[in-house]
Design brief:
Length: 151
């Protein structure tokens, strides 16, 4: 006598509910019983939901227009920290935006030099001024040959 495979829902409940385009079902175990997805497909679903909530222009209201000073970049980074603390932006996305702002901040001196090439701050490198007085040296005293002490 042959045993037939049971098609009860308990056997299928432990597998991911994701189906490929070809109609095959994922074989991995579910990560979260509420979603019914494995770790891989739950992560993909999170990425898609992040993409749906990706328009944060209202949150940055006016901060995306001009990055020509360190103060404006600082304002943007401050708002980014607030959004990250409120969990409205992923840490990966916040890290990318912070890195881009770091690059912008590093280019500010070059932009300043292009705008005002004749200013003393933008001269070819820092100016080193050496005008310290020389130290006052006392003449060396000859030691007394008998005692070895200076006379």
């Amino acid at each position: 006598m042959r045993k037939e495979h049971s098609t009860s829902s308990s056997a299928n409940d432990s597998r991911c509910r994701h189906f490929t385009r070809e109609g095959r079902r994922c074989r991995l175990r579910i990560l979260n019983p509420h979603s019914g997805l494995c770790f891989r497909h739950a992560g993909l679903q999170d990425q898609h939901s992040d993409a749906a909530d990706s328009d944060l222009t209202a949150a940055f209201s006016g901060l995306l227009n001009d990055f020509h000073s360190a103060a404006q970049i600082n304002d943007f980074l401050s708002k980014l920290v607030v959004l990250l603390a409120q969990n409205r932006i992923s840490s990966r996305r916040a890290a990318v935006l912070a890195y881009i702002n770091q690059l912008l901040l590093r280019t500010l001196p070059a932009i300043e030099q292009e705008r005002y090439p004749q200013s003393p701050e933008n001269a070819s490198g820092p100016v080193i001024v050496v005008d310290l007085p020389r130290p006052v040296r006392t003449p060396a005293l000859d030691p007394d040959p008998q005692s070895g002490q200076p006379s």
